[in-house]
Design a protein that fits this description.
- Two copies of one chain form a homodimer.
- Chain A contains seven helices and six strands.
- Chain A has 202 residues and is α/β, with parallel strands linked by helices.
- In chain A, helix 1 crosses helix 2.
- Chain A starts with 6 loop residues before the first helix and ends in a 7-residue tail after the last helix.
- At the A-B interface, helix 1, helix 2, helix 3, strand 2 and helix 4 of A face helix 1, helix 2, helix 3, strand 2 and helix 5 of B.
């Protein structure tokens, strides 16, 4: 255990060390960086964190993080409300938006079903997805969850929940990454990329 | 440029991204982690950073970070006030204290002379070191700066400043690390380890 020359310093280091991926050495480096910044800059940092925690809202339609009751994406009339892409979290929304390939709406689950981590269907925004579909506007639900055991379980659970509505259900394509060479692709991915082959566009 | 679904979120991400070694992706992960924590925890984090900035003191003797006017090390009567170890920053004090091999006092420069970064002798606690030595109690000054161009320059500058006092000046030993194999040690270090060989203690 390191001996800190100051209790205030140690407290701040402990707080930084609670962040994911930040050990005590990194935390000390971050705190000493803070000490070198001006008081205004430190105030701005502290204030931004407090405000994001206190004032952040979640869109009441898609449950994405938002400054307003309905997020800019759900509120955008030019987007296609008949297609909903189901994702795990806000990072996934940002990643898909960056592709500029999707003009429908989103539904943010807030996680995936993971019994190991104590996350059940009731902890996720699945019932609210069923309610959205029940309103009758949605024609297609795209499942865009991680290609992991938990993601697949969640996709399966949702598809069962929505099966009675008779809407189109799809999942994002699994296959070899653009730019990747075949010989370095794992065999499960390569196998699925052959099974799910698409018409060639020359 | 990523499009954030919320201005509050983006502001908090920008603040985290100013930390050294933290990019915007990591910053977003840290902010989302903050959002999952309780309001009390976020308050504690924010408070610890504000307090360390506002209330931290620097020891008026050695200039190390401290909660009091004189730090616990300088205030410890059992330590040897005749030997002063000159270091760059608080991490170095902690590292040397962890070895439990040094019972003298410290002098924290707050950096090293680095014209490239605009750091001159006047930006460091060098004059206060000269003043300490001038008081006449100090018999030995150990230079424990980084083995870099800047560290060596600073050591040289300090040794010149203190030369008139006729005290013992020493530098920490450079040599191969304990546990390291000879063949993987760089030749400069290996060469110095031969020049500065020590009597063998069998």
């Amino acid at each position: 255990m390191d001996k800190y020359p100051s209790a205030l310093l140690e407290k701040a280091v402990s707080e930084f060390a609670k962040l994911p991926g930040v050990g005590r050495k990194t935390a000390l480096r971050l705190v000493l960086f803070m000490l070198k910044r001006s008081e205004n800059e430190v105030d701005a940092f502290s204030e931004a964190i407090l405000r994001v925690k206190q004032d952040i809202k979640y869109c009441k339609v898609c449950h994405n993080i938002s400054d307003t009751d309905v997020c800019p994406i759900c509120g955008d009339k030019r987007r296609d409300g008949s297609v909903v892409c189901v994702v795990e979290n806000v990072q996934d929304v940002m990643a898909i938006e960056n592709t500029q390939q999707f003009r429908g709406l989103y539904h943010v689950l807030g996680g995936v079903i993971s019994p190991m981590d104590g996350v059940g269907p009731g902890d996720l925004e699945i019932d609210s997805l069923v309610d959205r579909v029940a309103e009758g506007q949605i024609k297609e639900v795209i499942l865009a969850l991680s290609s992991t055991m938990e993601g697949d379980t969640t996709s399966f659970y949702i598809s069962r929940k929505l099966s009675s509505f008779g809407i189109k259900m799809s999942a994002i394509a699994r296959g070899i990454s653009v730019g990747n060479e075949l010989e370095y692709t794992d065999e499960v991915t390569l196998g699925r990329s052959i099974l799910n082959r698409t018409p060639f566009q020359g």
